[in-house]
Amino acid sequence: MIRLNNIERAYKTGAGQSWVLRRINLTIEAGEFVTIMGPSGAGKSSLLNVLALLDDAWAGQYWFRDQAVHSMKRKERAELAKRNVGMVFQSYHLLDDLTVRENIDLPLSYKDFPARQRQSLLADALDRFQIVAKKDLFPSQLSGGQQQLVGVARAVVHKPALLLADEPTGNLHSSQAKEIMELFRELNQQGTTIVQVTHSEANAAYGNRVVQLHDGWLASDTAVSPMPPTAAGLR
Length: 235
Fold this sequence. Notes:
Elements (H helix, E strand, L loop, with lengths): L1 E12 L2 E13 L4 E5 L6 H8 L6 E7 L2 E2 L5 H11 E5 L10 H10 L5 H14 L15 H13 L5 E5 L7 H16 L3 E5 L3 H4 L4 E6 L2 E7 L5 H4 L3
Parallel strand pairs: 3-8, 3-9, 6-7, 7-8
Antiparallel strand pairs: 1-2, 1-4, 4-5, 9-10
Helix pairs in contact: 3-4, 3-5
């Protein structure tokens, strides 16, 4: 699904350039659940922003589903992201002036879904994440865990091929975090490719591969055995 070849990213500073990604070579196959780890400042979020097509100022080659992203214009990259990528943020990034239903509906508005299909997808998402009763509330009326559930629902409602998550449980207590990770496991088992950035070893145990970054360099890339559902405490 994804192939990165010599991806590099630097920021200009008063002393010249500060490198956050150096010669990253990485392949992610469809259906994988990949965890990106490393100390603060290692380049984890920078790499996720490249994968999400949120950052244009990188050098190298990036193929997404055999399409050469590095040869695309910004508008083409944005269109590719809208149709294929879902993003879950640590700080939720819900729009305060929109209801739960309207927040979740946003990605559907970017695609040419017939009205009936759009309503069906929205209803399915509300039901799947058990937030039907919250659909007319605003983010400020929800708990942190509920806001994150809405964020996940918004990220997957349009059935993206790739789900990216940046510290998705960082602001949640342990039971809420486990609930989110169990949802990720289910989505992955249903075919969604997932890449998460996390400091949590418990979250990493849900995936099948761990990529370690250090000072912008890819330090290791290791296959792991996902934690079985019984060990994860599935209800």
